[in-house]
Amino acid sequence: MRILIVGAGPAGLALAAALRAHGMTAVVVERAEQNRAAGYAIGVHVNGWNAAERLGLLDAFRARAVSLGTAEYRSPEGRRLFSYSYHALTRAVNGKMFSIMRDAVQDVLLEAVGDRTDLRYGTTVTALANREDGVDVVLSTGSTESFDIVVGADGWRSAIRQMCFGPHETFLRPLGFRAAAWRMPLATPLDSSFVGMMDVDHQGGLYEVGDGTAATLFCWRDSSTGRVAPEARQKTLMERFGQWSHPVSLALSTPVDWQRGFFDTIAQIEVPRWSSGRVVLLGDAAWCLTFLSGQGTSTALAGAWILASELAAKPHAQAFEAYESRLKPMVTRMQATSRRIGGHFVPESKLGLRIQSWTLPLLLSRPFAGFLARRMSAEELELDVP
């Protein structure tokens, strides 16, 4: 079986690794000219943990994990609001959780598949014909190739989805936020593993990565969905956060390489069916849980394993149907959870900010952390073919 994966992010590379584990190989094309190292700190939870274990990569991921202890939140002026310990959440899920930078996930997956996979950077799909017995694909290099299956793992603005399923706007569900993230040098350690600052309609903060750098994450209410040009992004952030104190002021004073950073609308993708003929969607191209859920990378890893295991056991149409039926109910629930979380992550009022400052430390304390983790976490999936 000849399989084309479009997109060399975590979903696409995880699928390439999962296919290899099941005795199949794939061609992977990626529009970027080199490995994409952009992103922010992400949580790997039970389904990502289990998928990484099956891929034989769990130890490699955990070796690159970011050590997190206390998270402290402050007002824009630097007044302490509340704090909590990440260890309480880890205990609540029986230890099956760790934080890792997205570029570290990318590096581990690339090391696992890079020298054994036909990986073509600077290459896109410009046209495709979805036939009953295969897919003819025209590549930006000018060549035309035929594949048994094409997998669109090319992000929430997926070109493959637009070609085969319909206009981008048809499936877009904006949540009313924008976010930005990048890495920066850190000359002096932070006071806590994570220092966040919060105000009405805004949140910004820094994670200490442990290698002399910090990872930033900024989020604010904004209903627009168009792209912001790289040269305008620093100005946008200064307009929103420019009066905030240290460490946000430090982050905003550091030049940003937006080729390695993230700046985009926060939106979910809702596609009635994840497959069309011999084309199937994976990861953000199919669902996009957003970082608010904390489950995006874990679900991409789990989805990659499930799709590969189904393709190894069944004809493509049955495999696509089983993949979607096994994964979509959980995805739908987590999308709903993500929408609810947004209102807490970025408070809408001074009252909401005060209530959050009172309730979050309590909910994240030892007696209640298990309840909160169950409410926010995805259920454990059966990853192998029943």
Automatic annotation (TrEMBL):
MF terms (GO), sorted A to Z: FAD binding
Keyword Cell inner membrane: no
InterPro entries: FAD-bd, FAD/NAD-bd_sf, FAD_aromatic-hydroxylase
Protein name, per record: NAD(P)-binding protein
Signal peptide: 1-16
Stored PANTHER family: OXIDOREDUCTASE-RELATED
Highest taxon, organism lineage: Bacteria
Ranges of residues in domain FAD-binding: 3-334
Organism (species): Rhizobium meliloti
